[in-house]
């Protein structure tokens, strides 16, 4: 139950009201730190405004995916709306939310904007307003197509996001030009969320480091620089391989000219340990290995252990097929969003949910060399010394929290 709002949250909640000094704005932009309350306040404000300004209107709610939109915005919002006297009905097959209050009903259509092709999904609809959750993760073409759908008089735009690279198009064209766009810009920090305890704030401050600390804790649009995992320079971040492991998995970054890296993972007391590795650099060795030779190395790495799943670089179709054909391991293509995967891996390492064992020499070497590419106007690590880094990232994104349901072959 929400007991109070901060001044900045109240401003986001009421900016559209005729008595607000911000009521002449055409848009609102809320960015800043994680857990600062901006998403919840903006979604509630969006629905309240729709009933204040329209009757029987159609509105758009956009996320990177419809699934993430439901998780981040719709699911937390519905209980509060119902407690305020709204009647809510989800039409799952239509990706539509019907909301009623008194004799008024408005319709909220859910859209996912994960790639350039998503722009076609929103064509043709006429909207009275649109809300973008995590707008910085959406392609510009989708955002602009959704905005073009808002042709009803009195329609407005609503944006929220966590910071990204300072060369990002949304930062340059909307946040930096908020006044020219007639947009209200509110920058949130964790202290703007009165429901967040000091203990939780300290937890988030300790969770992130480097660029992720600047973005997610301080809420700054900063460029990536330096080491990707600077905290892995400390010796205490590495562990001895423990006894009594309960289950096993393997993650693999595959290369022909580039190195192939495989990590063997074992779980104990809820923590996954990278207990061993296979790392073959064809340039260094002066010879390339075939898919069958890499498969033999996988067999040698796992020994007699029963492996739950093997996550493989999704571009390695031929090696995935070799593993599938042998039928000894359950194999899945790894999820491969690089920056999001790095963020999740950083959190898992800092929280101790994964540990790298001291005998994993290739991984330890790459942790010291893996750097952000500061020459680019986008977030990306340098494509060097990244093969063990990629296999570790594949484990976190694909296997750590239960494994992928997309299974190519069952273990015999």
Question: What does this entry look like structurally?
Answer:
- The longest helix has 18 residues, at 66-83.
- Strand 4 (96-101) and strand 5 form a beta hairpin.
- Helix 2 (38-53) crosses helix 3 (66-83), helix 9 (291-302) packs across helix 10 (317-326) and helix 11 (338-351) packs across helix 13.
- The chain has helices at 7-14, 38-53, 66-83, 140-148, 169-175, 198-207, 210-216, 282-285, 291-302, 317-326, 338-351, 361-369, 387-399; strands spanning 27-32, 58-63, 87-91, 96-101, 104-112, 129-133, 156-161, 183-188, 238-239, 247-253, 260-268, 271-280, 307-312, 331-333, 354-357.
- The termini are far apart.
- By secondary structure, it is an alpha/beta fold.
- 33% of the residues lie in helices and 22% in strands.
- Residues 404-412 have low confidence and may be disordered.
- The strands form 2 sheets. It has an 8-stranded mixed β-sheet, with helices on both faces.
- The protein has 13 helices and 15 strands.
Largest β sheet strand count, sense and barrel closure: 8 strands, mixed
What are the low-pLDDT stretches, counting only 5+ consecutive residues below 50? 404-412
Shape: elongated
Number of E-type strands = 15
Helix- and strand-based class? alpha/beta
Q: Radius of gyration in whole Å, from Cα? A: 24 Å
Order of helices and strands: HEHEHEEEEHEHEHHEEEEHHEHEHEHH
Tell me the strand percentage band: 15-25%
